[in-house]
């Protein structure tokens, strides 16, 4: 059989560059090459013991049957309490849907709200999967660019200028992947003020990096009363609780959105894994202010960020901002684009990342994939020794470009 059987839908879908670069680095490693992987965005810390124990207990308690489609009521109630405890927000369990990672939560939303040709405004740099999810759901991503000179943050005017009659949603992410930028409360307020004038636009606020914030408490966009009715929060346990492999994400928003996501999930995946849900229950019950595990992880990320920024300063031509959250640095590498590695021209950040993978054996993700072709993403969720070695290798390799 030929692959011409494949649908336009899948043929037009871009591959996830974060996962692709990580796959390439795994392949090189399997050949015995000493690759440093700074491409995947996941904590290198293990899931806290008390959370793992809750997962084991769920198996012993035979919590192994089909769960309710939107997730166990106990878990959704605990998520509602988490939203009150951490964000001062009031939600009922029936406004919450648990899914197989925040990735699944996001695609559920777009599948539920988009008709062909509907527009979703996405600030760039954006996380790689956002535009592809919108396209997969029949929508058109409308990208608004934020440069490094603005700390990679879009202005209220840019947002307002991008709104058309076809705008269905605005997709917002702070702390941001790939830039690590965190919007201040005043900046959020200015964004909220614009959106309050367009009550038919759904705001999708991806707050998955909520707990990885170096400068204080997370400010949720949902905390502005004037937009509370038009916002859906996307969050999960992958990043803040070091639980990427458990695959638990959730939404909290208007009940009709939760009902729609439950309906699609009922036909598509059913409720997500019971063992993971019971582990997530333990995780969301954990007050981040009292969690030793979280404190250790976030302070390690902060130290590594400081080290990375310091080391990167020594590489000629690289420009960086100072990210206040997540675990990424997104330096501008335009100084090196258009140069030659001896044989080949480095045309763009994808070429540069392939060169750095093959020559320096460091896996990074090209900014092209995040809508910012002048940048590359460095994930610093790894040890300080490996960060130092990786930056050394990158510096040596870049110096060879003429
Ligand atoms: N949103 C952002 C901004 C991300 O970086 C990721 C990747 N982990 C996700 C959503 C999805 O997270 P998960 O599916 O692991 O919950
Ligand atoms: N979100 C992480 C990243 O940006 C994990 C990989 C993925 O799901 O894209 O690297």
Description:
The protein is α/β, with parallel strands linked by helices. Helices cover 40% and strands 12% of the residues. It is globular, with a radius of gyration of 21 Å. The mean pLDDT is 96. Residues 41, 101-103, 127, 173, 177, 206, 208, 236, 238, 244, 249 line the site of 4'-deoxy-4'-aminopyridoxal-5'-phosphate (PMP). Glutamic acid (GLU) binds at residues 16, 18-19, 40-42, 103, 128-129, 177.
Topology:
Elements: H1 8-11, H2 17-30, E1 36-37, H3 49-60, H4 73-87, E2 96-99, H5 101-113, E3 119-124, H6 129-136, E4 140-145, H7 156-162, E5 167-173, H8 185-196, E6 202-206, E7 231-236, E8 249-252, H9 255-268, H10 274-285, H11 292-312, E9 328-329, H12 349-360, E10 362-363, E11 365-366, E12 376-379, H13 384-399
Parallel strand pairs: 1-10, 3-4, 3-5, 5-6, 6-7
Antiparallel strand pairs: 2-8, 7-8, 9-12, 11-12
Helix pairs in contact: 3-10, 4-10, 5-6, 5-9, 7-8, 11-13, 12-13
Bound molecules: 4'-deoxy-4'-aminopyridoxal-5'-phosphate (PMP) and glutamic acid (GLU).
Kindly list the characteristics that best describe this protein.
402 residues, alpha/beta, Aspartate Aminotransferase, domain 2, 2 domains, seven-stranded mixed beta sheet, three-stranded antiparallel beta sheet, 13 helices, 12 strands, 40% helix, globular, binds 4'-deoxy-4'-aminopyridoxal-5'-phosphate, binds glutamic acid
């Amino acid at each position: 059989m030929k692959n011409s059987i494949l649908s336009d839908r899948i043929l037009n879908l871009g591959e996830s560059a974060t996962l692709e670069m990580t796959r390439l680095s795994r392949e090189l490693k399997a050949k015995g090459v000493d690759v440093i992987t700074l491409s995947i965005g996941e904590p290198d810390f293990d899931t806290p013991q008390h959370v793992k124990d809750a997962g084991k207990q769920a198996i012993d308690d035979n919590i192994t049957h089909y769960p309710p489609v939107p997730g166990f009521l106990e878990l959704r109630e605990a998520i509602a309490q988490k939203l009150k405890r951490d964000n001062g927000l009031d939600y009922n369990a029936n406004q919450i849907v648990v899914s197989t990672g925040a990735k699944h939560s996001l695609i559920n939303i777009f599948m539920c709200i988009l008709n062909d040709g509907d527009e979703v405004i996405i600030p760039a740099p954006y996380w790689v999967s956002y535009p592809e999810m919108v396209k997969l759901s029949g929508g058109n991503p409308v990208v608004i660019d934020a440069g490094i000179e603005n700390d990679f943050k879009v202005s209220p005017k840019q947002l307002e200028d991008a709104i058309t009659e076809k705008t269905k949603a605005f997709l917002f992410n702070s702390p941001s992947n790939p830039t690590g930028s965190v919007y201040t409360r005043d900046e959020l307020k200015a964004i909220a003020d614009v959106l309050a004038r367009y009550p038919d636009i759904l705001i999708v606020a991806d707050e998955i990096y909520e707990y990885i914030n170096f400068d204080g408490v997370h400010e949720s966009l949902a905390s502005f009363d004037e937009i509370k009715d038009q916002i859906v929060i996307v969050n999960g346990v992958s990043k803040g609780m070091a639980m990427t492999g458990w695959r638990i994400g959730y939404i909290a928003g208007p009940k009709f959105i939760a009902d729609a996501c439950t309906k699609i999930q009922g036909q598509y995946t059913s409720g997500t894994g019971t063992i993971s849900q019971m582990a997530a229950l333990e995780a969301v019950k954990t007050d981040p202010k009292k969690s030793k595990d979280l404190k250790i992880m976030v302070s390690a990320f902060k130290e590594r960020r400081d080290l990375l920024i310091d080391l990167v300063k020594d590489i000629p031509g690289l420009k960086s901002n100072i990210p206040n959250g997540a675990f990424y640095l997104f330096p501008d590498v335009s100084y090196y684009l258009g140069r030659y590695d001896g044989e080949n021209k480095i045309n763009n950040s994808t070429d540069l990342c392939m060169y750095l993978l093959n020559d320096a054996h460091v896996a990074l993700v090209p900014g092209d994939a995040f809508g910012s072709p002048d940048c590359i993403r460095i994930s610093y969720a790894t040890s300080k020794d490996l960060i130092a070695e990786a930056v050394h290798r990158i510096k040596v390799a870049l110096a060879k470009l003429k």
